[in-house]
Amino acid sequence: SGKRLPISVAPDNGRKIAIIGGGPGGLTCAYYLKRLGYSVTVFEMQPKLGGMLYYGIPEYRLPKKILDWEIQGILDLGINARVNMKFGVDFDLESLIAAGYEAVFMAIGAWKYSSARLDKEEEVAGVEGATVFLERQGLGVPNPVGNKVGVIGGGNTAMDCVRTSLRLGAEKVYLIYRRSEKEMPANPEEIEAAHDEGIEFVLLSAPHRIVEEDGNLTNLEYLKMELGEPDESGRRRPVPVEGSETLLR
Ligand SMILES: Cc1cc2nc3c(=O)[nH]c(=O)nc-3n(C[C@H](O)[C@H](O)[C@H](O)COP(=O)(O)OP(=O)(O)OC[C@H]3O[C@@H](n4cnc5c(N)ncnc54)[C@H](O)[C@@H]3O)c2cc1C
Predict the structure, then answer these.
(1) In degrees, to the nearest 5, what angle opens at C-alpha 171 toward C-alphas 209 and 127?
(2) Is the dihedral of CA 178, 214, 137, 53 positive or negative?
(3) How far apart are CA 58 and CA 16, in angstroms?
(4) Do residues 56 and 156 lie in contact, with contact meaning Cβ atoms separated by under 8 Å?
(5) 108 Cβ inside 6 Å of ligand 1
(6) Ligand 1 in contact with 46 (CB < 6 A)?
(7) Does the domain made of 16-106 have the CATH classification 3.40.630.30?
(8) Ligand 1 within 6 A of 153 CB?
(9) Atom of ligand 1 nearest to the CA of 88
(10) Is any ligand 1 atom within 6 A of the Cβ of residue 52?
(11) b/e map 53-69, b = 16+ CB within 10 Å
(12) Which segments carry the region annotation Disordered (predicted)?
C-alpha cells in the first residue's frame, strides 16, 4: 500500500549498542533494541544495507526498491546506519568501546560459498562461487557470462544463479545436480520457473573434473550417479557409476 503503520518506540534510555552487519539479522536486532529504547548504530561494510537480501537474492525475486522501502521503515524509527564500514578494518572492538558502546551484536552472515571439491576450482578463470557471482549483480557492476553456463547444485541459490545467467544473456544454461529432481532442496516454484525459462537440468550427475586450456574453463566433466540407500539427511545417497565420465555438451 506504500503506507506505514505506526510503531511504538520506548523513550531513549541513553545506552548505546553497535550492530555489525546490516542484513536481516542485524536490522531485526536493531529494530527490537530501538523499540526497547536503546540507541542503536548499524555498521555495514557494503554500500547498501540488506545483506544477502540485497547482494544475493536477485532483483527479479526481490526488487531493490521494495527492499529499500522496508529498510527505510526500520531506520525511520531512529536507527543510525553507517555503510562502507568494515569491522576489523575501518573500526574494531576497542574503538567501539571508546565511543561509548556498551554491547555489540555480530550479525555478519555466512558469505563463504561451499566448495565443489574439484581440482583447480579456485584457479581456473570462468569458475566461481555463487555468492561472488550474485554479489556482483547486487553491486550493479558488469557481470559478463559466457554463452554456456553450468551451475552446480540443486538449492535456491543454484536456481538464482541459473535464472540470473539467463537474464545476463547466456544462450544455454545447465543445472547440474547429483540426485534426482525429487531430492532437490530448492523451492518447487523456483524449480518450475527454471524449467519454464528453459534451463536444462542435468540430473543424477556429479561434477568430476574441470577441463581447462591455458587457465580458462573449456568444459566440465561429470560422473553419472545412481541413487543408493538414504543417508543421514534422509535423501537417497548418490553413488557414482563407474566409467561414466561424460563431458557437458
Ligand atoms: C542466493 C541466496 C538466495 C536466498 N534466498 C532466500 C529466500 O528466498 N528466502 C529466504 O528466506 N532466505 C533466502 N536466503 C537466505 C537469506 O538471505 C539469509 O538467511 C539471510 O540473509 C541471513 O541474514 P543475516 O543478517 O544473518 O546475514 P546476511 O544477509 O549475510 O548479512 C550479513 C551482513 O553483514 C555484513 N558484514 C559481513 N562482515 C562484515 C564486517 N566485517 N563488517 C561490517 N559488516 C559486515 C555483510 O556485508 C552483510 O550485509 C538466500 C541466500 C542466498 C545466498
Answers:
(1) 30
(2) positive
(3) 34
(4) no
(5) yes
(6) yes
(7) no
(8) no
(9) 41
(10) yes
(11) bbbbbbeeeeeeeebee
(12) 230-249
pLDDT in tens, 11-36: 999 999 999 999 999 999 999 999 99
Which amino acid appears at position 144 of this protein?
P
Average pLDDT of the chain?
96
Q: Does residue 51 have its Cβ closer than 6 Å to ligand 1? A: yes
**Burial (0-12, 13-18, 19+ Cβ within 10 Å), 37:** middle
Given the candidates 3.40.50.1820, 3.50.50.60, 2.40.420.20, 3.40.50.300, the CATH classification of the domain at 130-247 is 3.50.50.60
> What number does the ligand 1 atom closest to the CA of 90 have?
42
- 152 Cα–ligand 1 center, Å: 20
Per domain, the residue ranges of the chain are 16-106, 130-247
pLDDT, residue 53, reads 97
Name the helix (H) or strand (E) containing 236: strand 236-240
Residue 203 has pLDDT above 90, yes or no: yes
Distance CA 168, CA 111 (A): 22
User: Could you tell me the three cell numbers for 10?
Assistant: 520506548
Separation of CA 248 and ligand 1 centre (Å): 32
Task: Look at residue 115 in the predicted model and tell me its pLDDT.
Answer: 87
Alpha-carbon distances of 24 from 29, 30, 108, 173, 200, rounded to whole Å: 8, 10, 10, 31, 33
Angle 134-140-31 from CA coordinates, rounded to 5°: 75
Question: Model confidence at 8, in pLDDT bands (50, 70, 90)?
Answer: very high
